[in-house]
Write a structure and sequence with these properties.
This is Aspartate aminotransferase family protein. Belongs to the class-III pyridoxal-phosphate-dependent aminotransferase family. InterPro entries: Aminotrans_3 (IPR005814), PyrdxlP-dep_Trfase (IPR015424), PyrdxlP-dep_Trfase_major (IPR015421), PyrdxlP-dep_Trfase_small (IPR015422). One of its GO terms (molecular function) is pyridoxal phosphate binding. With 460 residues, the protein is an alpha/beta fold. It folds into 2 domains: 4-62 and 343-459, Alpha-Beta Complex (Aspartate Aminotransferase, domain 1); 66-341, Type I PLP-dependent aspartate aminotransferase-like (Major domain) (Aspartate Aminotransferase, domain 2, 3-Layer(aba) Sandwich). Helices cover 42% and strands 15% of the residues. It has 17 helices and 15 strands. The strands form 3 sheets. It has a 7-stranded mixed β-sheet, sandwiched between helices. Strand 2 and strand 3 form a beta hairpin. The protein starts with a helix and ends with a helix. The structure holds 4'-deoxy-4'-aminopyridoxal-5'-phosphate (PMP).
Length: 460
Amino acid sequence: MVSNLQARDAATVLHPYSNLATLPSQGSLILERGEGVFVYDVDGKPYIEGMAGLWCNGLGHGREELVEAAAEQMRRLPFAHLFTGKSHDPAIALAEKLKELAPMKAAKVFFCNSGSEANDTQVKLVWYVNNALGRPQKKKIISRIKAYHGVTVASASLTGLPNNHIDFDLPLPQVRHAGCPHHYRFAAPGETEEDFATRLAAELDALIEAEGPETVAAFIAEPIMGAGGVIVPPATYFEKIQPVLEKHDVMLIADEVICGFGRLGEWFGSTALGMKPDTVSVAKQLSSSYLPIAGVIIPDWIDEALTSQSAKIGTFGHGYTYSGHPVAAAVALKTLEIYEREDILGHVRRITPHFQARLKALGEHPLIGEARGMGLIGAVEIVADKASKRLFDPKTGMGTKIVGLAQEEGLIVRAIGDGIAVCPPMVITEAEIDALFDRLGRALDRAEEWATGAGARAAA
Ligand code: PMP
C-alpha cells in the first residue's frame, strides 16, 4: 500500500535512475531528516545511511557548522559569479585550498556544480587545449568499461555502462572504452592479478597504437570504480598503465568524485592507488554534499595553453552560472576545515580494518561471489552460483530485492553493477559499522531464503 505522499511523489516527480514503470506501485522511500549516519523517513523510522547519500555525505547529517557557514555567506553575499573578470573570496580561498591539497602540482581550479559537469569540462578542456597547442587531431579520450563519469552528453559517453548509452545515441564518436580492471570477472583462468594488470596495459597500448597515438589525447579513470561495482584494480594496475600513457603523450584524468577527500584515508584516491594524474575532477565529499559544488584542478601546462589561446581569441567560452557559487564554496571550505580539525582521514584509516574485515566476512555468504573494497567503500557481488560465478537472471530482480530487504532491516544500500555497494559517511563508528553489516547480513539471509523458495521462481 503506497501512502498519500508516495502517490503524490509518483504522480509528480520524475525520478532519476529509477524504474519508472514499477515506482508508482512500490512507492519511494521518503526521508524527512537526518542525524549523524542515520536518516529518518516520514514515519520516523531510522535507517543507517550505508551509502552516505550517493557516496557523498562524508560528515553525516546535522553538522551545525556547515549550516552556519552557509547562513553567514548567504547574509553577506548570497550570489556572485566568476564570469567576465568577477570573483569573490570564498571561490579564491577554496581554489587555494584545493591547489594545496591536490595530488599533483596544481595551477588553478575551474568550478562546476556536479561531477558530470566537472568531467564534461575535462572533455572540453582536452579539446580546447589541443586546439590551442596546434594539434587538433589529438582529441580521442579513452575511458573504461564499467567506469562511471556522469550523465551529461560528454560524461555519459565516458561512462562505460550500457544503460548510459543505449537509448541515448551515445557515446560520442571521440570516446573509446578500454578493459575493466576487475580481476574476479575479467581475468583469464589462472591469471594472477599481476599478469592481469600487465595484460590490460598491453591491451591499452595496442588500442592507442590502433587508433593512432596522434589522435588519442587522454585517459580517464576513477581510482576505484564506484557505480560500476566498486572495482578495486590490481595493486600494480596504474603503475603499469601510466608508462603506456606517457609513451604516447596521453594525459591522465583522475575522476576523484567518489574517492576524493578521505574515502580511502588519503585526500585523494590517486595517492592511495599510485596514480599520477595531470588533471583531477572533484565533487561530492568536497562539501560533504550539503550544497552542490565540484571542480577541475589543472596543472601549469594546461593553464598556459588556455591563457595563450585566450590571448589569440579573446575569451575562454565555458562556465556555469553557479561556477564557484559563494555559499557552496563557503560550505566546502568549512567541510575541508572540519576534515582537518577532526582528523577525519586519520579516523578513516583507523576504522578501515574493521570495516573491511566485516565486509570481507560476507564473502562466506552463499549469495556472495566476491566481497571487495578499500578504505570505507566496498561491495559484495551477488551470484546464483559461487563456483561458476553465475549471476542471477536479471528478471529475478535480486539486487532490488536485497536493497528492499535491507531497507526493512533499517539500512540503506545500493544495487550497482552486479552487487550491493556500501559507502557510509566517513564519521561512522565501529559500533555503527557492526550494526550496518549485521543488518546487511540479515537482508542477505532473507534474500537467500527468498531465492531458494517460491519468491524468486515466481518473479522469474
Ligand atoms: N564521477 C563519478 C566517479 C561519480 O561517482 C559520479 C556520480 N556518482 C559522477 C562522476 C557524476 O557526478 P554527479 O552525479 O554529481 O553529476
